[in-house]
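queue> pop job 88
queue> type: inverse folding (structure -> sequence)
queue> payload:
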């Protein structure tokens, strides 16, 4: 039986690869969620007028990889102390959010956030939001599997964004 997890952690291009090749992952789709416009475009989301956040929707087999493990991987891709975006990407459309699809996912995400807060790993508060999942709209095809289709552009963007340096220094 498949389940879905939805995570927002800045640019969705950078949120696909860490999950994409793990055992138990069926697919990872880049898209938009949490807004008030039906089927928004990338340009509309970037304009900041739709209320949507860039996110990834992960379809997974919970008998192979747990939601708890996915949440742990998620934390290691983000700066959970930055509510105004992630790395070079700024604004609400890049905010860090764990979108839960069930009470069980809510409980796991909330407990994981509490454990991270209590770990003392960060000097600042953990501000990643935990919100109920809303309609998820897949992004345009050219955004899907961007790290595979446009390797050089992806690697240059990721390096320049500051994400890799942060992950290396904090995790």
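queue> result:
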């Amino acid at each position: 039986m498949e389940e879905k997890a939805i995570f927002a952690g800045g640019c969705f291009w950078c949120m696909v690869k860490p999950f994409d090749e793990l055992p138990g992952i069926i697919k990872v789709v880049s898209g938009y969620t949490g807004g008030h416009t039906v089927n928004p475009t990338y340009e509309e989301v970037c304009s900041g007028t739709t209320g949507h956040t860039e996110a990834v929707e992960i379809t997974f087999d919970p008998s192979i990889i747990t939601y708890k493990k996915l949440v742990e991987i998620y934390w290691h891709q983000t700066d959970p102390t930055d509510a105004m975006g992630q790395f070079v990407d700024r604004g609400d459309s890049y905010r860090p959010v764990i979108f839960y699809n069930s009470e069980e996912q809510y409980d796991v995400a909330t407990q994981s956030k509490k454990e991270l807060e209590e770990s003392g790993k960060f000097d600042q508060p953990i501000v990643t939001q935990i919100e109920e999942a809303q309609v998820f709209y897949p992004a345009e095809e050219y955004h899907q599997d961007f790290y595979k289709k446009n390797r050089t552009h992806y690697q240059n963007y990721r390096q320049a964004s500051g994400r890799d340096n942060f992950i290396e220094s904090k995790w």
